[in-house]
Amino acid sequence: MAYAATKHAVRVISEGLRQEVKPYNICTTVISPGAVDTQLPSSATEPDVAENLHKFYKEFAIPADSCARAVAFAMSQPEEVDINEILFRPTRQEL
Question: Quick check: is 57 catalytic?
Fold first, then answer.
């Protein structure tokens, strides 16, 4: 439940920001990646959580440049195009 509430809050804040900066022709994009090969698993301090994260990321994580390409795509659009949201994840990742 908290996860869903957090995701909703991010969307609401993002949409508020988008409306606020629209008169200045500034684009905003929410990028929601799935498992990306980063240092996140190394930041877990609980042993069981760390073990599960390492397993999950080893099996599913996509290269970080996949995320970079999504950012580059959003940023490369012409001034009149606003990419509101990009959701991407590894093909095999269920959630």
Answer: no
